[in-house]
């Protein structure tokens, strides 16, 4: 029996991941990894909530950066979405969203320093590109008929408001609320580069071995994400957006001379800055590509493909946890809790924790990427399976899973997996900051050595790599005729 195109692509991805697995480094180098894991578990079971002021400040700053960054990103993204039909707008949005928030934070740290504007822009800029793409898709899918029924004298702006935006408004609000959850994760993560959010305090607590404080911070973060739909209401959002800027703090003053020097001198390639011209630039580029860019690209692709395959396997194994066709109400509730914790934990945060437990290798990165993305996809596939109606004589157990449910959800599952491909690539690159030899490792090394010209070029290479993977994934979705409207449902 010949394989379907979807089956052939799936087997090819698994075969590629197995080949990459043979080339990767998955050694556990810590002396007592299980003891460290046990201490972390005890920290979660017995969290230290005594320092309420310290914990409260960490959460407050995390919320403030998320609200301001996502708010600015949504506003800019909406304006870009109105002009998204232009090629230059689509290209610009693809570029800014291809660069991870942490890379933006590292760039702005060199010019603005530890000022709130660094964290706000690090979130707002890539989110503007994401919002623009998704808002444009939502507006394009509105019914054009109301526009044709409007009087001819109605202006273009009024027609947009009363015909397209009025239809799309519930979807725009729903997606913006979801992006706020992603913004909270991004806000926590930028703390690892010095911003005063949850990640900053978490890194400090780990460094000092205060696992009870680590447990308290993680539990508060999970509660924050888990209760989001209860306290983030559309009518309260204006209040949050007004208050949030006053909760960012002041930070260090901006040295505008440093800003000017960074954007006019520091990021200019050294040979051009020193007057060597093209003759000096070409050897400089060759050395950078050979010793840093190519090894970084290789390891980034290697890690991405392994994480992509493991994500798919985990998602298909976990979605029955919340499917009514396999479990009862109590089991579904427990399954929801498990998947919420998995998808609520940022990949960078989880990789950081696992690196402390297992030591530096590709293993913590692969596990972190697979758990987070597998939790997201498993949750969405499980929800989709709940809409399936089975006949009364449908088989049970494994036969139900293999022959009744999986064939019906596999197409949307592959669409979700291909959508997450580019996101996994972005995260893989940034995990290099933790010491894994992906592109982020070489970016961070260049910044530590105050070679900003090298860092910027490596970040641009990362963006182009992400754009290339996104194009490949979109073409595969089109070739396999997979639905793409699900893209707006997830980060």
From TrEMBL:
Entry annotated with the keyword Ligase: no
UniProt keywords, alphabetically: Cell membrane, Membrane, Transmembrane, Transmembrane helix, Transport
InterPro entries, alphabetized: MetI-like_sf
Transmembrane residue ranges: 62-84, 213-232, 239-256, 297-322, 423-443, 455-473
Gene Ontology cellular component annotations, sorted alphabetically: plasma membrane
PANTHER family: ABC TRANSPORT SYSTEM PERMEASE PROTEIN P69, PHOSPHONATES TRANSPORT SYSTEM PERMEASE PROTEIN
Protein name: ABC transporter permease
Protein's organism: Vreelandella rituensis
